[in-house]
Amino acid sequence: MVDQFPSSVRELFTRDALEETPNPDDPAFVRARWWTVLSNSALVDVAKCEAERQGFTVEIDNSCDDWDYAKAADYLLQRLAEVRQRHERACLLSGGELTVQVAKPGTGGRNQQFALYCGERIAGRNICVLSAGSDGIDGNSPAAGAIADGTTLERGKTRGVDASAHLRSFNAFPFFEALGDAIVTGPTGNNLRDLRILLAY
């Protein structure tokens, strides 16, 4: 396997220039301590407080972490509908990261793909979906994520961009950029994973 590396990297292995990773019982760790300063749950908690302040009834569902984006979107939209049956203004929060198996080389990322998929399913309804990465980076795009609502598809048509075509080609960023609905923050220097906010009103 070392033969597959460039010669400059291979040389480091042949002369044992790389130190082994210390084991957990290494003396270097005897006095080491660590604690979590921020986490994805902290991000979700802040979003929950703000949504409640805005008059929404909030539920949190992180069960779709690492799911395929489409499966997660269908599940979360169904959960939002259930909350909406009991409350006029409903908010569903979901933390963690989703997966996308990219079949075509478009520009975007898992958050924009999720938002665009949701946009097709909430057309004409009083629902808004935000999905973004806390690090400010979503896939190979300059965006952190995107926002979709019940008007997304129609607004896309008026601007000459087809949501379905962009979804199929994994090219969500140009679609949201054309609508002004891409979330562009630049790199934040933090990574608390992703946040999805689904609102029904």
Short description:
Helices cover 36% and strands 15% of the residues. It is of the alpha+beta class and 201 residues long.
Please give the structural blueprint.
Elements: H1 7-14, H2 40-53, E1 57-60, H3 69-86, E2 90-95, H4 110-121, E3 127-133, E4 145-149, H5 152-158, H6 163-168, H7 172-179, E5 182-183, E6 194-200
Helix pairs in contact: 3-4
Task: Tell me what the structure shows.
With 201 residues, the chain is of the alpha+beta class. It contains 7 helices and 6 strands, in the order ααβαβαββαααββ. A 6-stranded mixed beta sheet has the order 1-2-6-3-4-5, with helices on both faces. Helix 3 links the parallel strand 1 and strand 2. Helix 3 crosses helix 4. The longest helix is centred in the middle third of the chain and has 18 residues. It is globular and about 65 Å long. The protein starts with 6 loop residues before the first helix and ends with a strand. The model has no long low-confidence stretch (mean pLDDT 95).
Structural class: alpha+beta
- What string gives the helices and strands in order? HHEHEHEEHHHEE
Q: Whole-number average pLDDT?
A: 95
* Helix percentage range: 25-40%
How many distinct helices?
7
Largest sheet: 6 strands, mixed
Question: Poorly predicted ranges (pLDDT <50, ≥5 residues)?
Answer: none
In order across it, which strands form the biggest sheet?
Answer: 1-2-6-3-4-5
Radius of gyration: 21 Å
* Oligomeric form: single chain
Global outline: globular
